[in-house]
Amino acid sequence: MTASLTVGLIGAGYMGRAHAIAFHGVGVTFGPQYAVRCLSLADHSADSAKASARALGFEGAAASWQDVVRNPAVELVDICAPNYLHREMALAALAQGKHVYCEKPLATTLVEAREVAHAAQRSGARCFIGFNYICNPLLQFAREMIAAGELGQIVSVRGRYFEDYLSDARSPFTWRCERRLAGAGALADLGSHLINLIHFLLGPIARVSAVLKTTHSERVDPSSGLARTVENEDTAHVLIELESGVRGSLEISRIASGYKCGLAAEIVGTAGSIQFDQERMNELRFYSAGSVSGRRGFTTILAGPEHPDYAAFCPAPGHGLGVNDLKVIEVRNIVRAVRENGVAWPDFAEGVRVQEVMEAIEVSAHSGTWVEVDGGPLS
Ligand SMILES: NC(=O)c1ccc[n+]([C@@H]2O[C@H](COP(=O)([O-])OP(=O)(O)OC[C@H]3O[C@@H](n4cnc5c(N)ncnc54)[C@H](O)[C@@H]3O)[C@@H](O)[C@H]2O)c1
Fold this sequence. Notes:
Layout: E1 5-10, H1 14-30, E2 36-42, H2 46-55, E3 60-61, H3 65-70, E4 76-79, H4 86-95, E5 99-102, H5 110-123, E6 127-129, H6 137-147, E7 154-162, H7 179-182, H8 186-202, E8 205-213, E9 218-221, E10 226-229, E11 235-242, E12 247-253, E13 262-269, E14 272-277, E15 283-288, E16 299-302, H9 323-341, H10 348-367, E17 371-372
Parallel strand pairs: 1-2, 1-4, 2-3, 4-5, 5-6, 7-12
Antiparallel strand pairs: 7-13, 8-11, 8-17, 9-10, 11-12, 13-14, 14-15, 15-16
Helix pairs in contact: 1-9, 4-5, 5-10, 8-10
The structure holds nicotinamide-adenine-dinucleotide (NAD).
């Protein structure tokens, strides 16, 4: 049997922990051929790395992220550090011949994202971006339904990603509010997932018309106690047209009171419609125009072992998966691509495509016009 894939993790915060849970679980869930060996971990300091390596079940702690990247025993470098570090870490890992698994967004600007994707293309390494929501068995199933024509001709799409983590004007300034460290605001943090979801279900977004707004324009910086200008948007409202000609809209907000993980999509077709909301991630609502008269209406499909990847977790329908299970599926896809078939998606080219849509949205908001998504070369 192939030996376990060896991983070096950089960044042991919220996502680092989620990745570690997935690394430990993937072999049990999908079989030992997908097992991962957690070799080395780096965090912002050597002391923090030591504590986190123990807590997250890594064999060793590295003094710095550069030590993880240079470690000859590490095959896959996993980047869970803040956005502004992704570019430098990914380029260094690729230069050492590593495969790379990077959290979203790929970089803080389109230019940097293209630079990283270009390096990945030249290296021949397998590279992945952590758009985990599309791993949901019900979203994989929805994609199959759409591809099989169950909704007929697609007429429109409505997507939203609402969270409320900055809805309180008194919430402090964080790195997510600073352009150099985060890139865009709600658009990069939440919108990137939504754009990828639309790409996954319906194909590429071709043009956009958008408005952006920063509602809470100042927040108190806890390090100084002084008010600081928030440098990126709280909300985005976007009209979209896909390459297929389908039209629709996206709404993105990090100040949407009451919404905790409101990633949702409604897709309307001539023969039926579907609705999905991540806050009810084990349910897919489906309407078939072919239903019997008097019994027409949306029905709720509960996730179960008939849907892709569900049975690996649980033989019983309706019992449900959780968000960390999506990371287990994501990691299985990565190990499979590296060890077996090489098919990796969402890869860094998709990371760039998402960033191109984000850039087009910002340009449109500035110019007040429709803007084409620039699918230019990677260099
Ligand atoms: N896929 C998802 O659903 C999802 C969810 C949340 C965050 N993210 C992404 O994950 C990334 C991390 O976000 P988070 O919420 O885990 O942040 P976090 O602040 O919880 O964790 C970041 C970690 O990086 C470490 N770090 C900072 N500088 C470092 C350095 N120079 N070297 C090594 N480690 C360093 C910090 O010590 C911290 O442990 C971001 O890019 C974010 O967009 C993705």
